[in-house]
Specification:
The chain has 667 residues and is of the alpha/beta class. It has four domains: 139 residues, 3-Layer(aba) Sandwich (Rossmann fold), CATH 3.40.50.2300; 103 residues, PAS domain (Beta-Lactamase, 2-Layer Sandwich); 153 residues, Histidine kinase-like ATPase, C-terminal domain (Heat Shock Protein 90, 2-Layer Sandwich), CATH 3.30.565.10; 124 residues, Rossmann fold (3-Layer(aba) Sandwich). Helices cover 46% and strands 20% of the residues. It has a five-stranded parallel beta sheet, sandwiched between helices. A five-stranded antiparallel beta sheet has the order 7-6-10-9-8. A five-stranded mixed beta sheet has the order 12-14-15-17-16. It comes from Sphingoaurantiacus capsulatus.
Length: 667
């Protein structure tokens, strides 16, 4: 049946409720004439009268006899490909709506629109269909003119926005009609297909191995006369094309006309969406795993903080127990050192006390509760000064290298604690190289920082060995307190914990990198100091210590054993000691007019801390020298920053030097 139509109206078939009326009114409001149809038969009848596009709901054709509609679609003129908009409830793609394949086969030029949708979406799709139909009308008019005038044909051919070509089949080496040549192509051909100057070229010259597929597709159109519409990738150029092909009459011309456009961007978007859906579950799983990892890290941090608080408290009590033991042994050794047996026993006991003191220092280091005396230090000079000590500690089988980047700024550190940390790391490295190896100490400016370290200026001190390395489990637990891979009695498991705690207390970070058989790298990130690097603090000489006159000392400590041991040491030095068990009693003594040259006070005491005792005492006696002894140096920020401190446990010589230092610096 031959039809001629110039209608630009929309036909709507939606049998449920007022769907058709509402949809039609949407188009009318948008300036598109629309008509609601009550049945499929009415729709076909109106199509005979003319239409720009048809809107059909899925339920309208789900169970209907579609043969009349299919026959109408098949009988369209060659220029006509009526656009259909199919309103679905489960998506338009073949993946989500199996029925879409049947609808696609019947309707041909169909756009799927999933409900619910915004009215503007329906109007937008409708306008797009109208524009497509208008182009078909234009093609129809120009094709009509083509029969009348070659010039009109050429104008149409060249002005199409879509790529357009005419191919002609011939018998080739592969059999009858096994090849074709491009006899005409419009300018848009190159833009859409990506191949220039195709007129006169054979398909096998253009696309090589994929030629057979294109030959078979178009030869079928030529032989059957049935037009086709399909999508296919032109592998030669990577373009995805949407194509329509029909035979050029009469068949004896052996020609097929092809109209196509580049849909590469659309296909890529569809593939990206498909990939997104495919990977969504994996991304959700990864996100859950990341959250669980963060939760585990938080739990680990909370566990370490709890252990830190526990060890800090234990260290305080342990120091108070060690102080009278150490001082008593020290006094016994001084008084009875002439007896070899007594000297040997006292020396062994003092060595054990020193080991216990070191253990407590490591506990405090891990707990970040140790007292630090930070100042600007040249790390390269500090490490170089440790060369002989490190070399003797690691032994002759270990080759030692020290590499320092020139011009490094000073770091803000406690040099004594840092020396202990570096020596600890070097000894660990030695133990990891039982057969010998290379130990390298590097000092430089890091290019990158650990993720949990705030932005700022840092100097990095690295200890690198060529030892056995650590597996993931050992590396993960390496800084846990009391965790050790050494034999029982060969280590406390606090060395790396102390280094980790020291780095954190200094405002830096400590990281470990290791793999089995590839050695270990320990990195200390230390903050850059604003001041110029300073030399180590002054130490009083024996002559200066002996020159100190006998003093009247007020000693305050709530622990009777610690107070008695300290008083004995002071009296053994020749000083007069007044003992008090609380800050309030000490202040009362001062108010009573006691002549005091020096106040020595414990820091952590009930009701009144040592810092408060010192402040009250100086208010009564301005300029009074004060020495604070403490077994737990968790002073609040800015609390008594000018008070010299003596950590517990201490020996006779430590106390003597601190008193001498105090009176030397105070005049």
């Amino acid at each position: 049946m031959k039809r001629t139509t110039v209608s630009e109206r929309a036909l709507v078939l939606a049998p449920r409720g007022r769907d058709a009326t509402i949809a039609a009114s949407m188009f009318v409001e948008a300036g598109i004439e629309a008509l609601a149809c009550d049945s499929l038969a009415e729709l076909i009848a109106e199509l005979d009268r003319g239409a720009a596009f048809a809107v059909v709901t899925e339920e309208a054709i789900a169970t209907a006899n579609l043969q009349p509609l299919s026959r109408w679609i098949d009988e369209q003129q060659e220029w006509s490909d009526l656009p259909f908009i199919l309103l679905t409830t489960r998506g338009g793609g073949l993946e989500r709506n199996p029925a879409a394949s049947r609808h696609l086969d019947v309707l041909g030029n169909v756009t799927f629109l999933e409900r619910p949708f915004h009215p503007t979406t329906l109007v937008s799709v409708g306008k797009s269909a109208l524009r497509g139909r208008r182009r078909q009308y234009e093609a129809r008019s120009r094709l009509a003119e083509l029969h009348d005038s070659e010039e009109r044909y050429r104008r149409l051919f060249d002005s199409l926005d879509e790529g357009f070509c005419v191919i002609e089949f011939f018998d080739g080496p592969h059999g009858p009609l096994s090849d074709y040549v491009h006899v005409e192509a419009n300018p848009a051909y190159t833009r859409h297909a990506g191949i220039p100057d195709v007129v006169g070229k054979k398909v096998r010259e253009m696309v090589g191995e994929e030629a057979d597929g294109w030959v078979e597709m178009y030869r079928n159109v030529l032989l059957t006369g049935a037009p086709v519409r399909f999508e296919r990738e032109l592998v030669e150029t990577g373009h995805f094309l949407e194509l329509a092909a029909f035979r050029v009459e009469p068949p004896s011309r052996k020609q097929v006309a092809v109209l196509f456009q580049d849909i590469t961007e659309r296909r890529r978007a569809e593939q990206a969406l498909h990939h997104l859906n495919d990977t969504l579950e994996r991304r959700v799983t990864a996100a859950v795993e990341e959250r669980e990892s963060a939760r585990a890290q938080l739990h680990e941090a909370q566990k370490l903080e709890t252990l830190g608080q526990l060890t800090g408290g234990v260290a305080h009590d342990f120091n108070n127990l060690l102080t009278p033991i150490t001082s008593a042994l020290d006094l016994v050794g001084r008084k009875h050192g002439d007896d070899p047996r007594t000297a040997r026993l006292v020396d062994g006991a003092l060595q054990s006390a020193e080991r216990a003191k070191t253990l407590v220092q490591r506990l405090l280091g891990f707990a970040r509760r140790q007292s630090l005396e930070t100042r600007a230090i040249d790390l390269a000079a500090l490490v170089e000064g440790m060369r002989d000590l490190v070399a003797s500690s690691v032994g002759a089988m270990t080759e030692l290298h020290i590499v320092a980047e020139p011009g490094l700024p000073p770091a803000l550190v406690d040099p004594n604690q840092l020396e202990l940390a570096v020596l600890n790391l070097c000894v660990n490295a030695r133990d990891a190289m039982p057969g010998g190896g290379t130990l390298t100490l590097c000092i430089d400016r890091p290019e990158t920082l650990p993720a949990d370290l705030p932005e700022g200026d840092y100097v990095r001190l690295a200890v690198v060995d060529t030892g056995e390395g650590m597996d993931e489990e050992t590396l993960r637990r390496a800084v846990e307190p009391f965790y050790s891979t050494k034999e029982l009695g060969k280590g406390t498991g606090l060395g790396l914990s102390m280094v980790h705690g020291l780095a954190a207390q200094l405002g830096g970070a400590f990281t470990l990198t290791s793999r089995p058989g590839e050695g270990t790298r320990a990195d200390l990130y230390l903050p850059v100091a604003n001041d110029v690097a300073a030399a180590f603090a002054w130490q009083p000489t024996d002559e200066m210590i002996q020159a100190i006159r006998p003093l009247s000392i007020l000693l305050v400590d709530d622990e009777p054993l610690v107070r008695a041991a300290t008083a004995d040491m002071l009296r053994e030095m020749g000083h007069t000691v007044i003992e008090e068990d609380s800050g309030a009693a000490a202040i009362k003594r001062l108010r009573g007019g006691a002549e005091i040259d020096l106040l020595i006070t414990d820091y952590l005491m009930p009701e009144m801390r040592g810092s408060a005792v010192a402040e009250a005492a100086r208010a009564l006696r301005p300029g009074l020298p004060v020495l604070m002894i403490t077994g737990y140096a968790d002073l609040g920020e800015g609390e008594a920053p000018d008070l010299p401190r003596l950590p517990k446990p201490f020996r006779h010589g430590d106390l003597t030097r601190e008193v001498a230092r105090l009176f030397e610096t105070t005049g």
